[in-house]
Amino acid sequence: MKLLDLKGKGIVGLASVLVAFASPYAMASSAADADGTPTLLTELQLTSSTLGATGWVFGSQDGGSLVDSQTTSPTSSAASIFAMNASYPAPGGGQVFAWADYSVAALNTEDLYIEFWAKMPLAKEGCKFFKIFGQGQPGSRADMTFGTDYTGADYGAMREVMFGDGSTLANDGENVIMLDGSGPSWIGRSYGIASVQTPQNAFFASANWGTSWHHFRIHVKFNSGTSSSNETNNGEIYFEIDGKPYVDATGLYDRNPANAPIDHIEFFGWAQKDPSPFQVWIDDVRVSTGGFMDTPLPSPPGDVSVK
Fold first, then answer.
1. Into how many domains does the chain fold?
2. What's the pTM value of the predicted model, to 2 decimals?
């Protein structure tokens, strides 16, 4: 594995994603837009079987495993690449089985852009998949979760973005934005003042995974303020899969003032109730501030010519 620092390289400006659709939410400017000058913090691109990189923490437990494994390149069936491979057992009562964490605590930022490639080629099951943690969040709770379904509604599907609206300190999944546009009031105290677009008005179903790689973009901006008396509903959430925006939300309360700034991000994580063992693969993770690093999409995993 090597850690690529792309600072100083040319950056193509991010084009706004504006999609016309029918939705129960109001329209607003896109949360995909750059908030400043895009600056790369890390690019995690695997080139060997060694798992380790500056700023990252990797681990597994309780029958799970996290390794660098070779897999077929999405650009050529004859080529192979290295990627993170988290293997989950059938969990029973549930546990954190694998993790890949990247800390941004030293930056004291409340605004991150994340893009990566992922696949779930075998059984389609549920895990936390991707989480954002605030510095003041107690215990193992996250401020925001982009998970795959482990409830049985559709194992492995991506159905919602879970977050806390800051009503209490321990905010995790108390509020949700459903990818199909249902339940608009479930965003908590942001309801009626936020603009939440769900352009696809559909879940990313378990069947959508297939066996191939998919590209993800996520922008998370915590709402500003240091106390309940001066906080502002200017939080943002953007969630895109394969170039299609599923959530584009602005004007949110999305964290408690005591939980800012962002502490770290986490891939993989907790799984619960899944009936079958499964695997989640992740590669070419890019974390930046100010905006996404590339438009159009970066090349699939294995194309190390993109710098």
1. 1
2. 0.86
CA 99 – CA 65 distance, rounded (Å): 9
Residue 260 sits in a domain whose CATH number is 2.60.120.200
Q: Are the C-beta atoms of 131 and 172 separated by less than 8 Å? A: no
Segments forming the whole domain that contains residue 264: 23-289
Instruction: Tell me the mean pLDDT in the region 57-79.
Output: 84
Place of tokens 């709770």: 141
Confidence (pLDDT) at 142: 87
Min mean pLDDT across 30-34, 54-58, 248-252, 299-303 is at: 299-303
Question: What pairing do the DSSP bridges indicate for beta strands 39-45 and 144-146?
Answer: unpaired
Letter string b/e over residues 22-45, b meaning 16 or more CB atoms within 10 A of that residue's CB: ebebeeeebbbbbeeebebbbbbb
Residues 6+ apart with CB under 8 A from 301: 45, 46, 73, 74, 81, 83, 117, 213, 283, 284
| Residues with Cβ within 8 Å of residue 62, at least 6 apart in sequence | 89, 95, 96, 97
> Sign of dihedral through CA atoms 189, 254, 250, 24?
negative
